[in-house]
Amino acid sequence: MTLKEIRAALDSRGLRPLKQFGQNFLHDQNLARWLAGRVLEGHVPGARVVEIGPGLGALTEFLLVGEEPLIAIEKDRGLCAFLRERYGGDIAAGRLDLREGDALDLLPRLDSAPAVVCGNLPYYISTPLVMECLRLPGEPARLFFLLQKEVGQRLSAPPGGKAYGALSVFVQVGYNVVLERTLPGSVFYPPPEVESVAVQLTPRAQPLVPSAARESFMKVVQRGFSQRRKKLSNLLPVADQRRAEHLSPQEWVDLWRQVDAGPAI
After folding, report:
1. How far is Cα 64 from Cα 50, in angstroms, rounded to an integer?
2. I need a labelling partner for 153 at 20 to 30 A (CA). Which of 9, 160, 189, 200 fits?
3. What is the pLDDT of residues 172-222, one digit of tens each?
4. 54 and 169 co-located in one domain
5. What domain range includes position 244?
6. Coil, helix or strand at residue 201
7. Measured in whole angstroms, how far is the alpha carbon of residue 59 from the centre of its chain?
8. Same domain (yes/no): 183, 102
9. pTM, to two decimals
């Protein structure tokens, strides 16, 4: 949708962008088309796609072009009413399954694992949503999100810097992370005060941590990063004198195995 169309759609229904939901609507149609193309690139026909926070349908419009089965999760009741009207034909034909509610609640209730999860994620809840995607059962889904640039940098950060933390490790043990492109605030309405990035997370052919052990691994990493200035030997039952941010994801896996094999923490 163009900026003019977005404003008209909101005004006609007495709606406005809600700050508490972190709503910033994408209005650059060429960019939306490109983003949807990246989401569907290499996608297996018939495999399910989940879009979080479709808003007014900027990405949804182009995700439906390939007629892939799409689940869209939207929390805003007014926007859900708009989407039901705009995409009534796709809903009736079974191409679009619109679910009203909080993605943090609805993602764990999916009856089968999606192939791709995508969306323009609200800044205030982007990290919990990424974490929820990491916990989805079954084969890991490919993830493609628009995120606050700072969050994207944390996902892709190498060891040793301030951006590298527990979230970086959680993501990188299971995914290869690529920051696809930076998006200025001007492509959104209302424009956010910070830049965004398009981030692609592709599952590793062999994850470093098996899914059954993921929660155990996360607990060790969280404890290691709980006090970043302390040495790991002061936080975990190990002799390692380094600080948490100096270990690569593989080294964290090795450390976790030491802890897991020793006394309970």
Report:
1. 12
2. 189
3. 999 999 999 999 999 999 999 999 999 999 999 999 999 899 999 999 999
4. yes
5. 211-261
6. strand
7. 15
8. yes
9. 0.93
